Amino acid sequence: MSRHLDVIGVASQYCCDGLEVMQSTVRDSLDASFGQPAVKVDGLSKAFKGRPALQQVSLRVETGEMLALVGASGSGKSTLLRNLNGLQQADQGRVEVFGSPLQVDGQLHSKVRQLRSQVGFIFQQFNLVRRLTALENVLVGNLSQVSLWRSLTQSFTQAEKLKALSALERVGILDQAYQRASSLSGGQQQRVAIARCLMQGAKIILADEPIASLDPESAGKVMELLTLLNQEQGITVIISLHQVQVVQRYCPRSIALRQGVVCFDGRTAELDEARLADIYGSAVEELVLRGHSEVFVP
Q1: What's this model's pTM, rounded to 2 decimal places?
Q2: DSSP string of 152-168?
Q3: What is the pLDDT of residues 88-105, one digit of tens each?
Q4: Which of 45, 121, 146, 229 has its CB 3.0 to 4.6 Å from that of 150, i.e. a possible disulfide?
Q5: Alpha-carbon 163 to chain mean position
């Protein structure tokens, strides 16, 4: 235990330097990609067993934006996010990340692993290895940058461990570094997932309903953290949500999907009750917040 406390103490001293390095990396990457959108999608279509999930979706997300994908269940939000980093392959269309094609008509780029390293993904159900500690789960975010042998043996350097501890400090759970993921609350697990994206060095974070499984207080903390990373570190955040009040509070721009079709793309302030009713009809009730209103309604 004392060894763990000593390491955490070192990490606290390292944290400020680590954060500066992260911020410097982000600034350098933004300079390098100046003029290129973070994500560009042209004519993306995807069907499952003949049923369309995405229909000719086109969009452009600028570097540093915080964008919400809005829609009821089955609208195509999760499918679109998974196509943006190649977890799924479209039937037709093109996805670019910082100007480089990630997939074209269902064919992944030969350097897809390198492109994916720039894109972190946060899942609704956290997607952590429950038997591993928070620290070990964060270190997994560095696997794209290490050799196969090191990834299989989980052989990480002291510098990598300190960077992972710094990421846990950044998301506010350094004191849980040596706790198994299975013992953490839902909100803590989601923050570990965000720290993993920071460890990865992600310039883009895709978040698929990241607060759907959380209590109101934890949901608020996760949304505030994603907003902070967007505003302070320039990380582009694309987040799928179905709670309109959350979108209105945190995301300046929204894209509304219905049955895989983009029905709205613009300022969230313009996505008012009348516009939502026009798009979703009776299904609009699903987009009205249930349970989190005391946290998210101004």
Answers
A1: 0.85
A2: HHT---HHHHHHHHHHH
A3: 999 999 999 999 999 999
A4: 146
A5: 19
